[in-house]
């Protein structure tokens, strides 16, 4: 009986962690956003009610920000029947997660807590503790609506003019002492002050004052964070604005791939060398940070038409796939990449989403290379012919290689709402989900739990280990997570820009 | 009645490949085994305009002229010759700008067009897909009795010739269809598609080249289907699942052989379901192009079974360059069948009834059930019934 219970619990958790790795409540190629969101709602509620300790520990398992925000919301909104000891760990995990999440997501999360009408001493403490680490003046301008909701809901005290700024309407002659607030007030009446505000706030004012796109982008460039600059570079190019180009190699591999696929074919051809070099540099950086090295690897990569993704995630599955290709190439001793409808070992930049999902033959080709590890990257919808790969793999495991000398892992960049997880190729291959290619090395580490071999205890121990590393790295304030690094440098940069501009004002 | 010859419908020069299933829809891609040169196809959006198409443009008596009324979602243009692409562009531009005349009255706009298939440039032809075939079907065997009957003549004098009306359902009424077309993974070199709902063939489309096909793939949602499709669309499409026996394969090579066998079985299964379209048909020649001819057809009418009407462009050697079909609903097929029997029997009820192996009473019941009761005047009907 106990054995069954353990097994069910382990499977539930593996399913949940897989969902947390890939799902983002956005539409996928085969499914719409609503279905995705409903499936996630159910999963989170179910796991939170039944396995609360493990639920909170999932925060440390390298899951995506969307899942983190959902977990923290769930934890904050229902805290009854939690033991004291558990509460302490939970509090630490929540604080660490909040400190690492980008601020816009934290504000959104707090807003959701307000929507669910939860107010208690614990939540209030968490909120005010997090707000204490922020520059409230700046956040009041950038996240005005969210901050107003939060301050109003939790009855928080605010210093100086913040209360007046948040809750009163701006007027033509109601001047503020604080320089940033004053600039924000002035921007309602004059176009000149717009360029001294954070980019996301300035966008609205630019529309109000009908500022031309190229002029706006040129003048607002110093106020942008790095990811904002990355996001607007194509718009700037189209508007022919004179903005310094972004250094691509500093981005994560998946983002470089996404950027490359967003370019028109001709321009992609022209910038080919630059993009390839940027990807190599980016991949090398990711590999340096992860100690994991692989032996002889063959990857079967799905570039069927379904990898174009959805409107919300344009080309994302293909971008993740090509980035995984680049990453594995650099992390393994010997590597071969087999594409479903592109020549063997094509450069990632030449791959296009075309044709049907015909995997079984490619996997047999891969097995003939006699590798140590076969990685199948696909969304799990196999249609040529349906069910071929699953039956080939189970036959392979049963009669050709029963001792499992070759490990086979299915990496899936897409969450399937209908089955509360990613579609898989049957029980013979463990399946792990990823959101970005950067997680693939972590995901390969997690793959043994998706297999039937590991027990629940092992999974719990694995999570505990991750929790220790997660909390420990925080106290030493060294992030191993690349995206966090990016964000903090983002914020530092923005902060510096802001200081500069305010000091300039003081001197004038 | 259109002049027709007996022919056959098939998909010569094309080969079905692995089908893809989405909910109730099964799509079978068709790939060319023989490439087509000197013919191409383009689509012009007509934005669902209500269109009156005059059938005989040069008749001496305009008041007796026939017209075809319908809502036209889009037109196709075929260009041929050595510079087919250029001709096609020219033709498409003509159709977009100056084909047909608009008449706007209060609250409604009507477009007047000339002929079902009209030349759009020197070597390009415009026609409305499926409607060319449906018009053929409507006029098929429908010229009225050859002998004078009093009722019929009176009716004609009072009300004029009753128009023949058939209704069909737009593919846009089926959410599963547009979804299936969106998620379908178009193959390299694919030129056509067979469309199945719950494993019944409901449409076929073939374009001359893969590029033409990619451009028009999603426009299949604008096609019309029989209304009973709504029933078929409720069921999940049955599908093939590959199964490999673990005991029989000990090496990778054996696995590969087993896999190839499965693929063969899969292919045969697809071929078998695709063979539904290969039928004998009544074919009418519509237009001749260099080396190609545009035809419309109705599969030979039987009392029961599925029937397709469609139009196609075939090369001299019989290769299908373009094909589009419409599946007749049961009632439509039966009406066409009854008309055919009546015509063959020179509108003699007894003769027609015996040809259909029915008693006269049964035949009359059948006429009434399928909306042809008006052909027999009430008095005649009463008399015949009484006997």
Count interface residues per chain for the largest interface.
A-B, 30 and 29 residues
Structural class determined from secondary elements of chain B: alpha+beta
Shape of chain B: globular
Strand runs of chain B, count: 18
Query: What is the helix tally of chain B?
Result: 11
- Compute the number of helices of chain A: 23
Instruction: Show unreliable segments of chain B.
Output: none
Mean pLDDT value of chain A = 85
Strand order of the main beta sheet of chain A, please? 2-1-3-4-5
**What would the average pLDDT of chain B be, to the nearest integer?**
86
Low confidence ranges of chain A: 476-508
- Report the β-strand fraction of chain B as a percent range: 25-35%
> Proportion of β residues of chain A?
5-15%
**Describe the biggest sheet of chain A?**
5 strands, parallel
* N to C succession of SSEs of chain A: HHHHHHHHHHHHHHHHHEHEHEHEEHHH
**How many domain regions of chain B?**
2
Write the layout of secondary structure elements.
The complex is a heterodimer of chains A (508) and B (387).
Chain A (H helix, E strand, L loop, with lengths): L1 H21 L10 H18 L1 H6 L7 H13 L6 H17 L2 H13 L5 H12 L3 H7 L1 H11 L7 H6 L11 H9 L11 H10 L4 H8 L5 H13 L14 H10 L2 H6 L1 H18 L4 E8 L14 H16 E8 L20 H9 L4 E5 L10 H13 L6 E6 L18 E3 L6 H11 L5 H20 L6 H26 L1
Parallel strand pairs in A: 1-2, 1-3, 3-4, 4-5
Chain B lengths: L4 E5 L4 E3 L3 E3 L2 E8 L6 E16 L12 E14 L3 H15 L2 E5 L2 E7 L2 E5 L2 E4 L3 H9 L10 H10 L9 E2 L4 H9 L6 E8 L2 E7 L3 H7 L7 E2 L3 H4 L19 H23 L4 E11 L2 E8 L8 E8 L4 E8 L2 H15 L4 H7 L4 H10 L8 H9 L1
Parallel strand pairs in B: 5-8
Antiparallel strand pairs in B: 1-15, 2-4, 3-4, 4-12, 5-6, 6-10, 7-8, 9-10, 11-14, 12-13, 13-18, 15-16, 16-17, 17-18
Helix pairs in contact in B: 8-9, 9-10
């Amino acid at each position: 009986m106990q054995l069954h219970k353990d097994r069910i619990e382990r499977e539930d958790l593996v399913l949940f962690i897989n969902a947390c790795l890939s799902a983002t409540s956005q539409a996928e190629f085969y499914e719409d956003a609503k279905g995705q969101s409903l499936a996630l709602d159910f999963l989170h509620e179910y796991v939170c009610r039944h396995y609360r300790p493990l639920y909170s520990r999932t925060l440390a398992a390298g899951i995506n920000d969307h899942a983190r925000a959902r977990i923290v919301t769930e934890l904050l909104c229902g805290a009854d029947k939690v033991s004291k000891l558990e509460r302490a760990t939970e509090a630490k995990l929540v604080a660490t997660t909040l400190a690492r999440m980008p601020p816009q997501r934290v504000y959104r999360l707090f807003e959701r807590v307000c929507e669910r009408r939860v107010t208690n001493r614990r939540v209030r403490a968490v909120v005010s503790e997090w707000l204490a680490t922020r520059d409230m003046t700046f956040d009041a301008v950038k996240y005005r609506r969210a901050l107003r909701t939060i301050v109003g809901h939790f009855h928080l005290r605010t210093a100086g003019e913040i209360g007046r700024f948040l809750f009163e309407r701006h007027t033509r002659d109601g001047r503020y002492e604080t320089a940033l607030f004053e600039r924000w007030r002035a921007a309602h009446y004059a176009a000149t002050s717009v360029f001294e505000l954070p980019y996301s706030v300035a966008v609205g004012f630019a529309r109000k004052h009908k500022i031309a796109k190229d002029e706006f982008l040129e003048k607002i460039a110093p106020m942008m964070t790095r990811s904002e600059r990355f996001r607007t570079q194509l718009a700037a190019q189209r508007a022919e604005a004179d903005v310094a180009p972004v250094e691509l190699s500093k981005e994560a591999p998946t983002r470089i791939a996404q950027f490359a696929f967003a370019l028109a074919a001709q321009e992609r051809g022209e910038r080919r060398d630059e993009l390839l070099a940027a990807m190599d540099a980016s991949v090398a950086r990711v590999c340096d940070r992860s100690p994991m090295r692989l032996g002889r690897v063959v990857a079967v990569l799905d570039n069927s038409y379904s990898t174009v993704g959805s409107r919300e995630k344009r080309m994302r599955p293909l971008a993740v796939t090509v980035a995984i290709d680049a990453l594995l190439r650099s992390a393994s001793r010997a590597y071969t990449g087999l594409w479903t409808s592109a020549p063997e070992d094509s450069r990632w930049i030449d791959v296009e989403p075309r044709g049907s999902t015909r995997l079984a033959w490619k996997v047999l080709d891969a097995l003939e290379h006699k590798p140590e590890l076969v990685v199948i990257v696909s969304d799990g919808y196999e249609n040529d012919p349906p069910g071929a790969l699953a039956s080939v793999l189970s036959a392979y495991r049963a009669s050709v290689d029963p001792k499992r000398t070759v490990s086979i892992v299915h990496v899936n960049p897409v969450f399937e709402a209908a089955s509360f997880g990613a579609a898989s190729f049957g029980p013979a291959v463990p399946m792990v989900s990823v959101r970005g290619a950067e997680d693939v090395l972590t995901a390969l580490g997690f793959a043994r739990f998706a297999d039937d071999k590991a027990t629940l205890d092992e999974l719990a121990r694995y999570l505990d280990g991750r929790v220790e590393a997660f909390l420990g790295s925080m106290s030493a304030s060294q992030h191993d997570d690349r995206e966090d690094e990016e964000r903090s440098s983002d914020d530092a940069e923005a902060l510096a820009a802001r200081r500069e501009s305010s000091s300039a004002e003081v001197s004038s | 009645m259109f002049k027709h010859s007996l022919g056959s419908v098939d998909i010569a020069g094309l080969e079905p490949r692995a089908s893809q299933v989405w909910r109730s829809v099964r799509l079978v891609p068709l790939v060319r085994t023989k490439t087509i040169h000197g013919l191409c196809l383009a689509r012009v959006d007509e934005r669902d305009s209500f269109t009156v198409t005059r059938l005989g443009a040069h008749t001496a008596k305009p008041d007796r002229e026939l017209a075809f009324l319908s809502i036209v979602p889009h037109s196709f243009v075929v260009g041929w010759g050595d510079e087919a692409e250029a001709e096609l562009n020219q033709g498409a531009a003509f159709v977009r700008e100056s084909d047909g005349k608009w008449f706007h009255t209060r609250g409604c706009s009507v477009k007047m067009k000339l002929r079902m298939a009209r030349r759009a440039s020197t070597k390009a032809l415009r026609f409305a897909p499926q409607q060319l075939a449906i018009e053929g079907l409507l006029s098929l065997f429908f010229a009225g009795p050859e002998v004078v009957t009093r009722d019929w003549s009176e009716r004609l004098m009072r009300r004029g010739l009753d128009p023949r009306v058939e209704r069909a359902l737009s593919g846009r009424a089926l959410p599963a269809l547009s979804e299936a077309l969106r998620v379908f993974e178009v193959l390299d070199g694919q030129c056509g598609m067979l469309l199945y709902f719950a494993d019944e063939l409901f449409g076929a489309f073939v374009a001359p080249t893969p590029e033409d096909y990619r451009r028009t793939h999603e426009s299949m949602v604008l096609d019309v289907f029989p209304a009973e499709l709504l029933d078929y669309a409720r069921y999940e499409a049955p599908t093939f699942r590959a199964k490999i026996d673990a005991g029989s394969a000990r090496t990778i090579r054996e696995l590969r052989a087993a896999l190839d066998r499965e693929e063969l079985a899969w292919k045969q299964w697809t071929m078998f379901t695709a063979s539904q379209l290969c039928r004998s048909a009544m074919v009418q020649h519509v237009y001749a192009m260099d080396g190609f001819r545009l035809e419309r057809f109705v599969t030979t009418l039987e009392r029961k079974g599925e029937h397709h009407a469609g139009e196609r462009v075939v090369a001299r050697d019989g290769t299908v360059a373009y094909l589009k079909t419409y599946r007749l609903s049961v009632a439509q097929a039966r009406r066409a069948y009854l008309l055919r029997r009546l015509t063959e029997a020179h509108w003699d009820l007894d003769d027609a009834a015996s040809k259909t192996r029915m008693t006269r009473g049964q035949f009359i019941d059948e006429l009434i059930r399928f909306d042809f009761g008006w052909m027999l005047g009430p008095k005649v009907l009463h008399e015949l019934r009484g006997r």
